[in-house]
Write a structure and sequence with these properties.
Length: 336
């Protein structure tokens, strides 16, 4: 077995099968075993623990986490990809909670969220709930969002089970290893990037205003206001003429004090100089509305709308800070 279409993956999830979901090579470059919470059973959980060997997690949407009282594990998430871990949980009726039988018991309680309550769980435990972004992979290109999107596309409850796949020698399984894993266990595999493309064929999370003209820091620009699925407004400034290959600056608006008393001011000024002299696009995100600059789904959709395919990112940060953009068909060709 190996890579299949998203339609085939949705069919597998709908029929209760396990699949492997792999993310971008520039991001984690890892594969997760994935199945729907609605079809969780002891056999699948035991398979994940025994053969995938990673951390067994249960992605849910924000509403389910709130209803069941699954608070975030930390307030200030400093992990590489800011995965939204909640406090760990066990079913209250479990003993140790660590066996495949009792982990499945906990997963079933989460999946039956309409009748379950916070009182049905104890904290901490052995299941790691994760909170998916509302916009799914169009907002954050991660395994958490991909698994929930697949469940929703299959017409199932937005509860999934995921587990990272680890090699026998203890190293993370990469693309070639995942191919062997899928062949060994007769599993289908899909990429998060293909799921992004599938969703973008039929939907978008953004809406552009009419093109406007004005100035920014004394520089003549064209600009759009872009409203996303949460009614947040991003401002997109175009310097000069843009093409399929363009300079791009992602800027998160901070408080005046933070902006003026850190290196953000000098970096922003440097970026404006490049944009004024060479042309390009500045996308400004409101820090209060957009909690993380590592979730580039909205920015990527903006660039796709502008027909930009190859980008020079204006930033001192390289690689992993911008991981996932290639999943939207964007090719990072350099940094400035």
């Amino acid at each position: 077995m190996g890579f299949v279409s998203i339609e085939e993956a949705i069919k597998d999830i709908k029929n209760g099968k396990m699949i492997v979901v792999v993310d971008d090579e520039d991001r984690e470059n890892e594969g997760d075993l994935v199945f729907a919470g609605a079809f969780s059973d002891v056999e699948k959980v035991n398979f994940a623990i025994t053969h995938a060997k990673g951390v067994l997690c249960t992605p849910v949407n924000k509403e389910i986490a709130k209803k069941l009282g699954f608070d975030l594990m930390v307030k200030d998430n400093t992990s590489n990809h800011e995965t939204a871990f909640t406090i760990t949980v066990d079913a209250k009726k479990a003993t140790t909670g660590v066996s495949a039988v009792e982990r499945d018991m906990t997963i079933k309680l989460i999946t039956n969220f309409s009748t379950s309550t916070k009182d049905d769980f104890v904290f901490p435990g052995h299941i790691f709930p994760l909170i998916a972004k509302d916009g799914g992979v169009l907002e954050r290109i991660g395994h958490t969002e991909a698994s929930i999107d697949l469940c929703k596309l299959a017409g199932l409850a937005p509860v999934s089970v995921i587990c990272e796949i680890v090699n026998e020698d203890g190293t993370m399984a990469r693309r070639d290893d995942l191919d062997k894993f899928c062949k060994k266990f007769d599993l289908n595999m899909v990429s998060v990037a293909d799921l992004v493309k599938y969703r973008l064929k039929n939907e978008t999370l953004i809406k552009f205003s009419e093109l406007k003209y004005g100035e920014l820091a004394g520089i003549k620009v064209k600009f759009y206001e872009v409203i996303d699925h949460k009614n947040n407004i991003q401002r997109v400034y175009i310097f000069g003429d843009i093409s399929k290959t363009s300079n791009v600056k992602f800027h998160k608006i901070s408080s005046d004090y933070e902006f003026l008393t850190t290196d953000k001011f000098s970096e922003f000024k440097r970026s404006l100089d490049i944009l004024e002299n060479e042309g390009g696009v500045l996308i400004m995100f409101d820090a209060l509305q957009n909690g993380s600059m590592k979730d580039y789904g909205i920015g990527a959709q903006i660039l796709a709308h502008l027909k930009i395919e190859k980008i020079n990112i204006i930033s001192k940060s390289h690689n992993r800070d911008f991981a996932g953009l290639s999943g939207f068909g964007l090719d990072i060709i350099g940094y400035k």
